[in-house]
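R.M. (postdoc): so does anyone remember the format we settled on? I'll just put the structure tokens first.
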């Protein structure tokens, strides 16, 4: 009986690990373990390191060269938010996706392999969803087309708790919609956008 229980437990553990890996960075476009320029063969080391890490806000044990670019933000006559430069957490993404820092610029080395194609966002963010702005109850009230992030549901809690950043949980950044470690829904989205579900999390249209 004990052997049967142990076998079942091992099988269950294997299933959990399998499910976890299928929804993780492993095997996704962010898995660089098989690249010729990554001699370590490790997945995490391109962005993180357990030793000699950089002291970077919002970036635990950071190991990648950061972008120093000034970005052109989104603007529109119908936009009620005041959009500034991307916050620290967005700059982590842009440290590859702005095209000025090589993907293989990590661990103190300067790389030569740059993001291309649809993954290249560039430094002109004027045609992308705005980031680097305060999304709070005041903005929602002024805009009229946005849900109150302090009360509306985000993923499991409120939008403010689940999707916003900064000391007041009120800054909208790249990671508000994208999870760099999980590509379950494609494009590293934090939830499915079928029927515009992700958009409608915040937009009251």
């Amino acid at each position: 009986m004990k052997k049967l229980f142990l076998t079942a437990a091992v099988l269950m553990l294997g299933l959990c690990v399998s499910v976890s890996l299928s929804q993780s960075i492993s095997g996704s476009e962010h898995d660089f373990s098989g690249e010729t320029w990554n001699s370590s063969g490790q997945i995490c080391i391109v962005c993180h390191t357990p030793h000699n890490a950089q002291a970077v806000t919002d970036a635990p044990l950071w190991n990648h060269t950061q972008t120093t670019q000034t970005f052109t933000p989104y603007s529109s006559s119908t936009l009620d938010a005041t959009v500034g430069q991307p916050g620290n957490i967005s700059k982590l993404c842009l440290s590859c996706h702005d095209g000025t820092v090589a993907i293989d610029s990590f661990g103190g080395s300067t790389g030569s392999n740059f993001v291309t194609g649809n993954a290249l966002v560039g430094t002109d963010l004027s045609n992308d969803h705005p980031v680097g702005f305060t999304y709070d109850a005041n903005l929602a009230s002024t805009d009229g087309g946005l849900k109150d992030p302090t009360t509306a549901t985000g993923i499991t809690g409120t939008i403010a708790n689940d999707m916003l950043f900064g000391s007041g949980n009120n800054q909208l950044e790249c990671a508000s919609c994208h999870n760099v470690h999980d590509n379950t829904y494609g494009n590293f989205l934090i939830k499915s956008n079928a029927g515009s579900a992700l958009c409608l999390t915040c937009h009251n249209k």
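R.M.: ...and that's the designed sequence above, right after the tokens. Also worth knowing: Residues 1-22 have pLDDT under 50 and may be disordered. The CA atoms of residues 145 and 205 lie 6 Å apart.
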